[in-house]
């Protein structure tokens, strides 16, 4: 039986960049949002296996800015555990909307979010071109636009 526990990062010196970099390309990009977020670590015993960063966008909207799972725990439902925890945190704090953005080339990520109750609600044109100095490729395609997905928590 897995021994999963969550905890919140309480100090900026504890920011788990090695995990956050699994979902974002550079520390500079992470630093653009991370200091405004609450950071949650998922552990299995003493091993850090996943991270998520949640950021308040408004009184009603919480955004999932980063979610990452270490390689050896992928495809085992850990991402869905994180999403369910994010939904729980959002509901507990009276948010009605949970949003996330991912690359238009992240086909697997988009399917994952849709499987977890998110629906596509918009596009941020040229996001990855304007916010990253070097081109980034995923699935053989240059990342260009950000796909926005939303989950309404009032169901």
Layout of strands and helices, then pairs:
Blueprint: E1 4-8, H1 17-20, H2 27-31, E2 37-44, E3 47-56, E4 61-69, H3 78-92, E5 97-103, H4 107-115, E6 119-124, H5 127-131, E7 137-138, E8 141-142, E9 146-152
- Rg estimate, integer Å: 15 Å
Shape: globular
Mean model confidence by pLDDT? 92
By secondary-structure content and strand pairing, the structural class works out as alpha+beta
- Bin the helical content: 10-25%
Order of helices and strands: EHHEEEHEHEHEEE
Distance between the first and last residues' Cα: 31 Å
Largest sheet: 7 strands, mixed
- Low-pLDDT runs of 5+ residues are none
By DSSP (H or I, 4+ residues per run), the number of helices equals 5
Spatial strand order of the main sheet: 1-2-3-4-5-9-6
| Share of residues in strands | 35-45%
User: How many strands appear in the DSSP assignment?
Assistant: 9
Give a quick summary of the entry:
The protein is an alpha+beta fold.
Key words describing this protein structure:
5 helices, alpha+beta, 36% strand, 155 residues, 9 strands, globular
Verbal overview:
- The protein is α+β, with helices and mostly antiparallel strands and 155 residues long.
- The protein contains five helices and nine strands.
- The strands form two sheets. Strands 1-2-3-4-5-9-6 form a seven-stranded mixed beta sheet, with helices on one face. A two-stranded antiparallel ribbon has the order 7-8.
- The N and C termini lie far apart (31 Å).
- The model has no long low-confidence stretch (mean pLDDT 92).
